[in-house]
Amino acid sequence: MPPKKVPGKVSTVRGASYPPLTAPAARPPAAAAPAAASASPQPLVRAAAAAASAASSVYSALGVGGAGTASTAGVGVSRAPPLPPDMDARRQQRANAPPGEGGDACAVARAGGNSAMEGDGAGAASDSSAPAVSSTSGGTGGSGSGSGSGGGGGGGGSGGGGAGCPPSMEQQRIGRFEELLGAEIVDLKALRALSWGGIPPHCRATAWPLLLGYMPPNRAFRAAALSRRRREYLESVPQHFEVSDAERSEYEKKTLHQILIDVPRTSTSSPIFQSPLVQRALERVLYIWALRHPASGYVQGVNDVATPFFLVLLADGLPRGSAHTAEDVDEVHRRQPYLLAQAEADAFWCLSRLLDSVHDNYTFAQPGIQRMVFKLKELVARIDAKLHAHLLDENLQFIQFAFRWMNCLLLREFSLDLILRLWDTYLAEYGGSEDVSDMSLVETSDIGEGFAPLHVYVCASLLTHWSKQLLAMDFSELVMFLQNLPTSGWCETDMAELISQAYVYKSLYHHAPGHLLQ
């Protein structure tokens, strides 16, 4: 009797070779659970103690409960603790809270960007002051102001609570972001540390380019650097994209054809990507990126990775409180057409900076992804030996479900809102080198190891989160579940817990002697 086919997504992906998603004809004998790590447990005891100390500050910053007790037997650690009894009530309270009012103090730091294209007839735009973000609880918020010009201005102060009420922790965080982003020279080390626990939405369009090293931290260099990079991209569009098919090579025709197929299917749940203007911009970004990276070319999945940058940078030019619909984009483009062009150019360079750090994920055979999947498999064997043994017993290969997690950086597993929160932490881990014009201000110690190692731990945290359910499933159920994770009801608190658990795993295992991810 031939093996049964399992409904679901096609298992063949360009550059990846792995078994098809078919159930085994006969189940092999149950595999024994992997033995505990052969290394002496003493290093893990010390690592667990260090992780517990370090994790306490992370849990506090993320606003979730304390870290669970770590196992020191060399096999694994416990998952994040259950929510406090009043967590559901606090979630409901947050859901019912009125949206924040007030201005965008962080937008002042991007004032230079709006005038960076004035030589192209873009016009100039600047903010001389910005009201502070007001309190979302208590009485009327206070206000703060800031001013700036050139390559970004100063940030306004954070609004206070009602009369006699001290500012909340969130207001203090917002105020700290505004202070950092409004400085003459942004302290990147402090910005990375603060961004790890999440970035206020109205600050992302400034913080993300800074964290990626695209926007110079020195405000004096910002306008010139942004103008130069934007012009470089925009001048490449008519040279490479706006040409006839007769002028394209067969490779370029094939690349463009695939991009034109993929773009309409990209992030269909977000109204902003239904705009023809945004779709054309995304097509240009992906095509130019593919031509500039011939070793990889265009790979399906890069279109997904580009969407967070478009969402953050486009939303920065839309009215605060708008629904971010295609109509909003059309209206802004009609009134200020240069804003969309700027966001497109910035999205291209931010995407390039991010993918350059994981470039071998997209070259032939995608060796970077293959390594990450292997590391995930070995990590789960140490964290949850029982789950690892069950997956092997069911003949489920990690590549069959984790390839997409690595290729698309979990873009297809969570809503875009939660991806933005996850990427706040990833970009804080990125630690990319800065613009060459400002490299003298950057110390070698400020350059991080990148987000890819943490991403593996986040995937391990995600998989072990459902360990109990997965242990009760057979092959077909495992495939269907892992290809359609039930995360639609997740909120930012759930994402914070996922990240904090990944941090605990990383603290325990990443720097352990002879660790698999070294």
TrEMBL record:
Protein's organism: Emiliania huxleyi (strain CCMP1516)
PANTHER family noted in UniProt: LD44506P, TBC1 DOMAIN FAMILY MEMBER GTPASE-ACTIVATING PROTEIN
Domain Rab-GAP TBC: 198-430
Annotated Pfam families: RabGAP-TBC
Protein's UniProt name: Rab-GAP TBC domain-containing protein
Sequence segments annotated as region (Disordered): 1-44, 68-169
Biased composition (Gly residues): 138-164
Compositionally skewed regions (Low complexity) per UniProt: 19-44, 69-78, 123-137
Alphabetized PROSITE patterns for the sequence: TBC_RABGAP
Residue stretches in coiled coil: none
Domain of life per record: Eukaryota
One Gene Ontology molecular-function label: GTPase activator activity
